[in-house]
């Protein structure tokens, strides 16, 4: 416990030191579902589980490849890879989202992973600047390419911690002309705690709590050259109960019940009197004298509506999975979930359904989003194929 606290404190100190020299940005109520690949990078298994990735069953060795790097350390040695595909938003435009993972446990305490994702051919209205310092908008074909390297270490007493570093490339092209191109680095941190609340010969009740924060670092703008819209950092807290019933010497029936709360670290901009007639049309505030970590802290207490509006900014996700495990050679699972934003803070709400099977390390997962809004432009499906081997 002492070593875990010391390492966690050291990780937080290094994080603050890295964030301190970076400039902060603020924008008005970013619409969460438009932030596509950087915030929603899940594969088919996570997608079917209500998009929850801060906690996961110990059966899944790739869990730390997504939001919470601490989940890589699962107290077992394994090697694996997987590839996930889905036609993301606006399927008529031919947009494609592909992500993949390569993960390896060095031993029962240390693990590494490499995650990549490519989101191509999605169309957005991009703002650009002319030589005469005026602005114009144009439909652009955009793409993202992201590589993320993660490391996790498992301590004693059920604690684990992890960190990740991401390289991000974004490009918006109008016709044959590249209108906007940018690269950036971001990092993330994650913590996880596992404990068995009750144990008998035929029944167990494990509890898992996970915390992670991602997209920390220099703000990554999209749409426009002046950066007045950007991917925000976030913090995520999740918890899961996994009652497990021993059916026979080899088989177990497990139910995962999970909840996750997410908060975007985006403060409300201070609007000058001269800009009030244009508010709230995506006004962005920049202040070179305000550090990025100060903007993160400000995002918890600056909502115009006070504490009530701050609570509205929390994004809620619920997930349930029913899984049959037969040793480590065969399993199948059924999943469902709900992802919900407040009506004043994005309005995105969708149900999820999914299923998966594992046969001697070969895994296949499928899932589907069901958008509750009238236009249903977030409905999509996922397909994931992978292989893992436990030493």
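-> sequence recovered:
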């Amino acid at each position: 416990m002492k070593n875990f606290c010391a390492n966690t404190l050291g990780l937080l100190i290094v994080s603050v030191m890295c964030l301190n020299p970076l400039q902060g940005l603020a924008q008005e109520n970013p619409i969460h579902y438009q932030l596509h690949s950087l915030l929603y990078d899940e594969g088919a298994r996570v997608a079917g589980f209500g998009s929850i990735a801060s906690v996961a069953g110990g059966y899944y060795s790739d869990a730390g490849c997504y939001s919470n790097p601490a989940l890589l350390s699962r107290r077992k040695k394994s090697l694996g890879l997987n590839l996930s595909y889905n036609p993301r938003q606006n399927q008529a435009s031919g947009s494609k989202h592909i992500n993949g993972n390569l993960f390896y446990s060095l031993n029962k305490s240390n693990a590494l992973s490499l995650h990549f994702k490519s989101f191509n051919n999605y169309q957005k209205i991009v703002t650009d600047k002319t030589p005469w310092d005026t602005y114009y908008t144009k439909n652009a074909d955009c793409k993202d390419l992201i590589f993320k390297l993660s490391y996790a270490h498992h301590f004693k007493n059920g604690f684990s911690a992890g960190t990740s570093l991401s390289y991000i490339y974004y490009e918006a092209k109008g016709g044959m002309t590249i209108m906007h191109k940018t690269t950036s680095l971001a990092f993330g941190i994650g913590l996880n705690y596992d404990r068995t609340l009750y144990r008998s010969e035929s029944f167990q009740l494990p509890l898992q709590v996970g915390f992670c924060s991602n997209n920390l670092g220099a703000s990554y703008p999209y749409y426009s050259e002046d950066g007045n819209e950007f991917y925000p950092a976030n913090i995520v807290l999740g918890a899961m109960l996994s009652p497990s019933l021993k059916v026979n010497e080899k088989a177990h029936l497990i139910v995962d019940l999970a909840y996750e709360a997410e908060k975007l670290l985006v403060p409300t901009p201070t609007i000058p009197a001269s800009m009030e007639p244009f508010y709230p049309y995506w006004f962005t505030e920049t202040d070179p004298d305000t550090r990025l970590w100060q903007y993160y802290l400000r995002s918890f207490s600056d909502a115009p509506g006070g504490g009530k509006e701050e609570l509205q900014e929390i994004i809620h996700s619920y997930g349930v999975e029913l899984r049959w495990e037969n040793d480590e050679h065969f399993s199948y699972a059924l999943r469902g979930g709900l992802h919900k934003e407040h009506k004043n803070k994005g309005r995105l709400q969708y149900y999820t359904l999914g299923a998966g099977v594992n046969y001697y390390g070969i895994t296949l997962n499928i899932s589907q989003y069901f958008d509750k809004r009238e236009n249903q432009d977030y409905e999509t499906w996922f397909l994931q194929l992978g292989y893992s081997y436990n030493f």
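The mean pLDDT is 78.
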